[in-house]
Amino acid sequence: MRAANRKIRECGVGSPKAPEAPKAAEAPKPDANKELAGKVKRALESEAKIQGAGIDVTATDGKVTLWGTTATAAERNRAAQVAAKVEGVTAVDNQLKVVKGS
User: Fold this and answer.
1) Angle (deg, nearest 10), helices 73-84 and 32-46
2) Alpha-carbon distance 18 to 15, whole Å?
3) 3-state secondary structure of 98
4) For labeling, which of 19, 33, 68, 89 is most exposed (least CB within 10 Å)?
5) How far apart are CA 74 and CA 57, in angstroms?
């Protein structure tokens, strides 16, 4: 029996072992493109001369694209101007379509 006990000790079985600390889960990093698109969308919605609800915004590395419809060409142009002034925007691709009555 003594030989068996010695083998168990040599293998480390039965020896106290410190429990491993659980690894902290990394918080997901915010998506800079989504954040920028959100900032532009909020800027458009806060502009009184623009129906921001009818405009969708996507962003990729500082370039924002405006999608949707506006009632006038002036509103379409104003949306692009507002988007261009948002911090972090490097270019605006204005894909807005003018649809009377939209």
Assistant:
1) 130
2) 10
3) strand
4) 19
5) 18
Average model confidence (pLDDT) across the chain: 84
This prediction's pTM: 0.69
Report which secondary-structure segment, H or E, holds 94: strand 91-94
Q: What is the 3 state secondary structure string of 42-93?
A: HHHHHCCCCCHHHEEEEEECCEEEEEEEECCHHHHHHHHHHHHCCCCCCEEE
User: Does 57 fall in a domain?
Assistant: yes
Hunting for tokens 């918080």 — which residue is that?
A: 27
* CB of 77 closer than 8 Å to CB of 48: no
Q: How many beta carbons lie within 10 A of that of residue 80, not counting itself? A: 15
- Domain membership flag for residue 86: yes
Residues 69-90 pLDDT 10s = 999 999 999 999 999 999 999 9
